[in-house]
Design a protein that fits this description.
Number of strands: 0
Number of domains: 1
Structural class: mainly alpha
Oligomer: single chain
Order of helices and strands: HHHHH
Radius of gyration: 15 Å
Number of helices: 5
Strand content: under 5%
Shape: elongated
């Protein structure tokens, strides 16, 4: 099955966000738990694999919920002044990419990706 356009964009946005999160972790290495970073990357890649190659609706919804938790947690940390200016800018860029990725999963054309019987419209 050929990937619908929103799924292609999801992959680009999501992997870009994961890469930026790694950059933020490197910038804030002195205040970051290395084990938590590794677990976060592994979970992110497993969810990406679930969406892209297993067409898992469960992975999609877990990814959406974790994005909401991540966004709230990050905003809380920023309000406490835990990040420097560069880290804040990179984190905001990662959040925007992550939000765009989540939005692509909720577009009508993406729903066929998770429905094994539907035929997606390709652009």
């Amino acid at each position: 099955m050929k990937r619908p356009t929103p799924i292609v964009w999801f992959e680009r946005y999501y992997l870009g966000a994961v890469a930026l999160k790694v950059v933020v972790s490197i910038i804030n290495w002195d205040i970051v738990d290395a084990g938590g970073v590794e677990i976060g990357i592994i979970v992110s890649l497993l969810l990406w694999f679930g969406v892209m190659y297993r067409h898992s609706a469960a992975a999609k919804w877990i990814l959406i919920v974790l994005f909401l938790v991540y966004a709230l947690w990050t905003l809380l940390q920023m309000s406490r002044g835990a990040y420097g200016l560069v880290a804040i800018l990179v984190t905001l860029a990662a959040m925007v990419l992550n939000a765009l990725a989540v939005w692509q999963l909720l577009v009508d054309d993406a729903q066929a990706w998770f429905d094994k019987t539907a035929v997606p419209r390709l652009r």
